[in-house]
Write the C-alpha cells for this entry.
Amino acid sequence: MMARRPPKPTSARTVRRSDERSNEKLAQDRIRLAKLSEGGAAERPITVESSSLVELRASALPCPRCLGEQRVDDHTAHAVAGDVLRAAHTRCKQCGFERTVWFRIAQRLAN
Ligand SMILES: [Zn+2]
C-alpha cells in the first residue's frame, strides 16, 4: 500500500502521525509476541481436552493487533510430526486481523 504523505503537515498532524506510528509499533510487538506464545505456531500448540474446546479457546484470545474480539472463521486438522493438530483460523471483529491459533488435543492414555 502506497500512502501519499501530505506535503506540509500541521504540527497537530505530525503529533497524531507519530502516535499512530508508536501504536503500530506496539501492535507489531504484540503480533510478534503472540507468534512466540503458546498457540502461536504449530511447534507450540495449546493443549485442550477435546476438539470442541478449540473454537471456544481461540475466540477467547484477544486480537494481538488491536486487542479486539476475534471470531473463528475456520478450523482445520493437520498431521504434524505424528500428532494431529487443530488450527483455528481467526479474524478480528474490529480490525480484520487474521491469525492461526494452534491446538493439540490431549490423548487419553489407554490403560
Ligand atoms: Zn484487531
In short: Helices lie at 11-36, 52-60. DSSP finds two helices and four strands in the chain. Residues 63, 65-66, 68, 92, 94-95, 97 surround zinc ion (CB under 6 Å).
